[in-house]
Design a protein that fits this description.
5 strands
Amino acid sequence: MDIFEMLGIDLGYVVLGMAGVILILFILLLISMIKIHIMRKRYKTFMDGQDGKNMETAILEKFAAIDTLQGNVSDIYSKIEAINGQLVTAYQKVGLVKYDAFKEIGGKLSFVLVLLTAEDNGFILNSMHSTKEGCYTYAKEVVGGEAFVILSEEEQQALEEAKANISLKRLRPANK
């Protein structure tokens, strides 16, 4: 009390000021309690779910779904590997050249067809059309992009065209 008298402050003002601060703190306490109550209601609703399911059941169901998906992904990867094995032997590159085999016939009715695998193995099919002598078809083997018999200009052109074609890339899973 002596301190307040020495400073020239009336003790009534100090009590009124303290009562005001206590009132403000009490109001803040009530606001905090109301917010906590609202948050607890939201938490309970969140944990119970709208249809009465609890959160633990929902999480367990999601983990089970993830396990099923991982099994499916493994199955898909094994099927992709099987397809990759089959693609090696599939004809993927094509070369086609149409030409006139004989001078008396126009319209480019003769053709050379080349079919190659990804490893440039396959065959050359040459069909020469003539009105007088009929149609002749020849097949020649290609190994590693090379034929071991003499090729005509058209056959060589079709072979180069087929080798220039980009084969299907092997499908590779990104992550296993």
